[in-house]
Design brief:
With 515 residues, the chain is mostly helical. The chain is built from 20 helices and seven strands. The protein has three domains: 46 residues, no CATH class; 214 residues, Citrate Synthase, domain 1 (Orthogonal Bundle), CATH 1.10.580; 102 residues, Cytochrome P450-Terp, domain 2 (Cytochrome p450-Terp, domain 2, Orthogonal Bundle). A hairpin with a 4-residue loop joins strand 1 and strand 2. Bound molecules: carboxymethyl coenzyme *A.
Length: 515
């Protein structure tokens, strides 16, 4: 039987009445925007009981435990709203469906970052600045050339954002003073100008760095971002345009003047809409990482590099790559029932399904299916489409997924479009990062402009490890052994084995030894 709940006198106001049954004390916790401040609970103290551990810090106030941020609001935000039960996504109040239909990526970027739809002249100023800032320093050629021949593009891109920060001393609070960006909250025009410049650079150079990560593996020279194109056209140009000195191009044209290159309009528009859909998604793992990192006030390039690393995981932006790997492994619609049975036995994961917030279909997935049709009409359908459809339909009829409210998310379909457009699988997360840079900078800027200032994000933990104990000398220790309890013995490569077996030493002295 559950414990009897003490009767609390009913008074209707915006507060929560809490009784601490350890002390009998009653507290009134204020409710704002249907949320309670976790810090309030610090004032709820009790004497440690006879079995209490000092590490529980019972006398120093109650802690709020929330593994994985399941119900913790870390910021007040005016950027993006999601209603996961009703499948609603809005940027600054505008429904995603309307933006996908009518807007462009850079217009949405303006909206997300600055809060309102721009006028024509505001938009053209913003577009000009972003596209102008796409050009990279020539040294970046050496940087990208230093990666291993088969480096994952996400490893290159994550490093590239950190590298980018090394160029801009004026954007580094460690060098310029820690109020460099927070003084923007007071409307300091110079500080705002400096912040905007970093925003133009980050968005402008995201395509350039991504294209460099792509071309280095194709063995192609890098191209300078073109002029007179939209953001996504420019990106496709930077990925695909063959300059006169590229081997293929050189064989077809001896001229050194740049050849005209215009990406296919359907593919450019499809990518633009995909970029709109991926631009922001409120407190997802990578945006939270950008804010967490940004809260200790490093330069924004370091914060974006951290976000990029977070996005790469297969539970987040790496899911688009994981979906295609999964579909390839399933192979054909006939194998779908067996695959779903393995998912239900928890031996496999159905990538592209499920979401922390959406408990119905992700609204972006409907828009993406429409874009997929447009793209397939130009490129031809992807051979994995039948398997994807069979998997989708079977999962939506299966009680395991229905009862857990697991529905397709944005990543279920996006990978099929990217594949049809000819992108390599490991480039898919990069195609997520480029537009998400906008969301990251929008959140970072909002935090820097906060009138209350920036608080370092320093969460708490519940310590469950050993209480204080004294150091034990080697002779008195008992070995703690077993998998996970001591460093593993690892398998060495053939090369390491050969080296261990070899004899080394100085030829001059004739002294030999085993390595
Ligand atoms: N396949 C099979 N079972 C699943 C899946 C899935 N894709 N997703 C959730 N579940 C199960 C989970 O095992 C749990 O079952 P039970 O209650 O019996 O233990 C239940 O559903 C609730 O899931 P959860 O793990 O508590 O959900 P979460 O909010 O912690 O995780 C998620 C959300 C997106 C990480 C998870 O659904 C998942 O791993 N999905 C596959 C990866 C994926 O597609 N990620 C892209 C997300 S959308 C775009 C983005 O954010 O980048």
């Amino acid at each position: 039987m559950g414990q009897e709940t003490p009767k609390v006198k009913q008074t209707r106001n915006n507060s929560l009445a809490v009784i601490d049954n350890r002390t009998g004390k009653q507290y009134s916790v204020p409710i704002t925007h249907n949320s309670i401040p976790a810090t309030f609970f610090k004032s709820i103290r009790a004497p440690a009981g006879p079995d209490g551990r000092p590490e529980d810090e019972t006398e120093r106030g109650l802690r709020v435990a929330d593994r994985g941020f399941l119900n913790t609001a870390v910021i007040e935000s005016a950027i993006t709203y999601i209603d996961g039960e009703r499948g609603i996504l809005r940027y600054r109040g505008y429904p995603i469906e309307q933006l996908a239909e009518n807007s462009t990526f850079l217009e949405c970027a303006y909206l997300l970052i600055y809060g309102a739809l721009p006028t024509r002249s505001q938009l053209s100023h913003f577009e000009r600045e972003v596209l102008l800032h796409g050009i990279m320093h020539a040294d970046a050629t050496k940087f990208f050339g230093s990666f291993r021949y088969d480096a994952h593009p996400m490893a290159m891109l994550t490093s590239a954002f950190g590298y980018l920060g090394s160029y801009y001393e004026e954007a580094n609070p460690s060098l310029q003073g820690q109020t460099l960006f927070t003084k923007c909250a007071k409307g300091d025009p110079e500080a705002l100008q400096n912040m905007d410049k970093q925003i133009y650079r980050l968005i402008g150079k995201a395509t350039t760095l991504a294209a460099m990560a792509y071309r280095v593996r194709q063995g192609r020279e890098f191209v300078v971002p073109p002029t007179g194109m939209s953001y996504t056209e420019s990106f496709l140009y930077q990925l695909d345009h063959l300059s006169p000195t590229d081997s293929f191009s050189a064989s077809v044209s001896a001229s050194s003047s740049p050849s005209p290159y215009k990406p296919h309009p359907v593919l450019a528009r499809a990518l633009d809409v995909l970029f709109i859909l991926h631009a922001d998604h409120e407190m997802n793992a990578s945006s939270t990482t950008v804010l967490q990192t940004g809260s200790s006030l490093p330069d924004p390039y370091s914060a974006v590099a951290a976000g990029c690393a977070s996005l790469y995981g297969p539970l987040h932006g790496g899911a688009n790559e994981a979906v295609i790997r999964m579909l390839v492994a399933i192979g054909s619609p006939d194998n779908v029932p067996g695959f779903l049975a393995a998912v239900k036995r928890r031996e496999k994961v159905l990538s592209g399904f499920g979401h922390r917030v959406y408990k119905t279909s992700d609204p972006r997935s409907f828009i993406i299916r429409k874009i997929a049709n447009d793209v397939f009409a130009v490129t031809g359908p992807d051979p994995l489409l039948d398997t994807a459809m069979a998997l989708h339909d079977a999962a939506l009829k299966d009680d395991y997924f229905v009862s857990r409210k697991l529905a397709p998310n944005v990543d279920f379909w996006s990978g099929l479009i990217y594949r049809a457009m000819g992108f390599p699988m490991d480039f898919f997360p990069v195609l997520f990062v480029v537009p998400r840079v906008v969301g990251w900078v929008a959140h970072w800027r909002q935090m820097m402009l906060s009138p209350e200032g920036v608080k370092i994000w320093r969460p708490r933990q519940i310590y469950v490890g050993p209480s204080e104990r004294s150091y034990v000398s080697f002779d008195e220790r008992e070995a703690v052994q077993g998998p996970g309890k001591e460093p593993s013995a690892v398998v060495h490569s053939g090369m390491a084995k050969r080296r261990r077996l070899a004899e080394v030493g100085s030829l001059a002295t004739g002294v030999k030894s085993k390595l």
